[in-house]
Amino acid sequence: MSTPQFSFATTAEEVATAFASEIKGKNVLVTGTSLNGIGFETARVIAKYANLVIITGYNEERLKLSEDALKKDVPSANIRRLILDLSSLAAVRKAAAEVNTYSEAIHVLVHNAAAPLGPFKLTVDNLEKQIATAHIGPFLFTKLILSKILAAGSSSYVPRVVFVSSGAHAFGAGVNFDTIGKPNEEKYQALDAYTQGKSANILMGIELSKRSNGRINAYSLHPGVIYTNINQKEESIAVMQSFGVLGPDGKPSTERFEWKTIPQGAASTVAAAFDPRLNDVPGAYLDDSTVANDAVAPHSSDPANGKKLWEVTEEIIGEKFVL
């Protein structure tokens, strides 16, 4: 096979086609698969070749719409729905327990779900909603289904965990260890909360790879600037406008950013999940479907921060995550 070269314009479909033989026979779990989002597109292109694609969401009705759309587009797809609310630790435990009853191993876990940018919100566990959804819930979920992930490993295959981060991580100061477990509404800024979650994603990709000692390869990525369902929520529009991502009309602004389509935006996720060239670079960060470690801000690649984040998150969930 000739080595595929990817660019800004590469689509998820093109990446999946290039790695069809890698996807074949795999069982993949993708979080946050609502219509008109990059998680849905990720699931759609993978479903053409995979053995099983598990899609998740916290809303049963919306999740069913995604399943119906996937089966309509890919009649041969084997799709399974899983209710997963990452903002609730109890809900995460319930979903993980269900996954652990499956007969199949999980070859690839894609952490794609995110909470919309918006006003300060506490979860049922008294955590700030963005960091809970982007990092704490995914950390617990990964821990609880670890045996399913490890079961996919073999002498010729290393299971993968993929974190959908963002280049916006570099616009913040990194994870605030003082507030991650003790939210402070007075100091809350929506964009800062978002960048903290995305910084945590990169740190976890590096730390999970390191702690697994070659048994799991984890990656993070920047999908691009994309007009998805999450940018169109009423609570998010003002924040996105203040940052210049959306214009006064609430539509994408091209003054500061070059936008990707949803198919282009999902490309890096599919590459992180299946490109065999990444086996040699566990913990890597991708942009435009290629390794872009130089684009990671120092606070999001500092090993001390990764270690601290892991330990602080263990305290928050009340469990050790030992590999």
From TrEMBL:
Keywords: Oxidoreductase. It comes from the Eukaryota. The keyword Oxidoreductase applies. InterPro entries: NAD(P)-bd_dom_sf (IPR036291), SDR_fam (IPR002347). Gene3D superfamilies: NAD(P)-binding Rossmann-like Domain (3.40.50.720). Belongs to the short-chain dehydrogenases/reductases (SDR) family. This is Short-chain dehydrogenase/reductase family protein.
